[in-house]
Design brief:
Elements: H1 4-16, E1 33-37, H2 53-62, E2 67-70, E3 73-76, E4 79-85, E5 90-95, H3 109-120, H4 129-133, H5 139-145, E6 152-156, E7 159-163, H6 171-174, E8 192-196, E9 199-202, E10 216-220, E11 228-229, E12 253-256, E13 261-266, H7 287-290, E14 308-313, H8 322-331, E15 337-342, H9 345-349, E16 357-362, H10 370-373, H11 390-399, H12 405-422, E17 425-429, E18 433-437, E19 441-442, E20 445-446, E21 452-453, E22 458-459
Length: 460
């Protein structure tokens, strides 16, 4: 049975069929040069080694994978379509005809396989290999030892078959991450190629080059003279969310939705309070389905007549006013709050009793509530309250194997009901990102997971 996203991908091909040629049909490189301000200089432009969001976003422009992030999901990129078989266990990707690297060599399924194995190799030291590619059969063992078979096969030059440890519905999303992109040294598979340090030029061999509007992108950390100030988030998808600055104000600033959630965990059973906002971000596909039956929770019922400790990390302290806001709200109930800061998240989650309350932000790596709800299973390293409900874990195992979105959302609605009934955590906020665009510049595209697209930017 074809995966619903795959059927949509095939339908979308009608609209882009005329754009699938190679660089020979490319327009002349006469587009604008755009100057873009980043929050920090990317640490690397190697897609496998990128671990901070600025590096990931720059490599996302240089290297393409089988799919590509777009809005609230993914679209075909180097793969024109894919088949999902055996209930989501086996995915077969079909590459486009005529794909070429920036140096004019053909891009093949063998190149994709080599790129994935390189990312998983221990010597590469790819920080996101486990979270993004660990679901592939044999990937974890290969990542640890460099030995053993991995479930990635090149059946021919244009067919890549991926076998997973267990079925999941979002391999197409994981395949859009830069770590899964086609990589070769000194050659580029994405919309742009690296001209020299932090200067990108249009890759005329990119299959969809007609849609690439800028002739050149110049990255800098200086905001003066910039055409756009790009989002300031630093942490990659699937890791604790970090807010690095106060929300900017003034003309030109745009508020962008994210799939991040700021959580306040209650490790003291005497504290029962409702979420201030839904645990599932509103930007999540299926938000209305997942939150449809979640009833109102009780107010804060009881605060012990003793000082409460609020545990947080140095990262969480970067969220402007969050710690102050939490302590102020609890003082309304005659509670004395003693902040306790931990140096790192690892220090906090490894502490048996970190505090009565724990402040922890989280960002999603897939367009699904699963990534947030996966903080709550009994064995989760980030379940700081050590809350355990075997029936929750059983539902989670069913949900992550459902290919049909609506059927999975119905299971996730039950998961959310269990979390809210137990009140192990309240959602304090759903943080937004911000971008500044110079008047006359348009075409910036944003994904709530944290990836943005620059290939459509232009001056009107």
């Amino acid at each position: 049975m074809a995966h619903p996203r795959q059927r949509l991908a095939q339908a979308g091909l009608v609209a882009v069929a005329l754009l699938a040629g190679c660089g020979s049909s490319a327009p002349k490189p006469d587009g604008a040069t755009l100057r873009l301000a980043l929050p920090l200089i990317p640490k690397t432009v190697d897609p496998a080694k990128a671990g901070d969001l600025p590096s990931l976003n720059v490599t996302h422009e240089l290297y393409s994978g089988l799919t590509r992030f777009s809005g609230t999901g993914v679209v075909p990129d180097l793969a024109q379509s894919w088949d999902v078989e055996q209930g989501g266990l086996v995915w077969t990707f079909h590459l486009r005809k005529g794909l070429r690297w920036s140096d004019d060599r053909p891009i093949t399924a063998q190149d994709m396989r080599r790129s994935w194995l390189r990312a998983l190799a221990p010597g590469t030291k790819a920080p996101l290999a486990g979270p993004d590619l660990g679901i592939v059969k044999g990937a974890r063992g290969y990542h640890a030892t460099g030995r053993g078979s991995v479930g990635v096969q090149a059946l021919d030059d244009r067919t890549l078959r991926v076998t997973l440890q267990h079925p999941i519905p979002w391999l197409d999303q994981l395949a859009a991450n830069p770590i899964a992109a086609a990589y070769r040294p000194n050659a580029y598979s994405g919309p742009f190629r690296l001209a020299h340090r932090l200067v990108l030029e249009r890759n005329l061999n990119y299959w969809n080059v007609r849609k690439v509007k800028p002739a050149k992108l110049v990255f800098t950390t200086a905001t003066k003279g910039a055409d756009a100030i790009l989002p300031r988030g630093l942490a990659p998808p699937g890791l604790p969310w970090v807010q690095t600055a106060k929300p900017p104000t003034g003309p030109g600033w745009m508020k962008l939705p994210t799939l991040s959630v700021q959580l306040l965990w209650t490790t003291d059973r005497g504290l029962v309070f409702p979420p201030r906002s839904p645990l599932v971000p509103k930007a999540m596909p299926g938000f209305r389905t997942i939150t449809a039956t979640t009833g109102p929770s009780a107010s804060l019922e009881f605060v012990p007549r003793r000082p409460l400790t609020l545990a947080y990390t140095r990262q969480d302290a970067l969220a402007p006013g969050t710690v102050t806001s939490v302590t102020r709200d609890l003082r309304r109930f005659d509670a004395t709050v003693v902040p306790r800061r931990y140096r790192t998240l690892a220090d906090l989650v490894s502490t048996p009793s970190p505090g009565d309350l724990v402040l922890l932000g989280w960002s999603a790596k897939v367009f699904d509530a699963y990534n947030i709800l996966d903080l709550f299973p009994c064995g989760s390293a980030f379940n700081v309250e050590h809350w355990c409900d075997p029936s929750y874990d059983a539902l989670m195992r069913r949900a992550v194997r459902r290919l049909d979105d609506r059927a999975r959302w119905e299971l996730e609605r039950k998961l959310l009901d269990k979390v809210l009934a137990a009140a192990p955590a309240a959602a304090l906020s759903q943080p937004s990102e911000y971008v500044w665009i110079r008047p006359g510049v348009r075409g910036f595209s944003w994904s709530p997971i944290g990836f943005y697209e620059l290939d459509g930017m232009t001056r009107s």
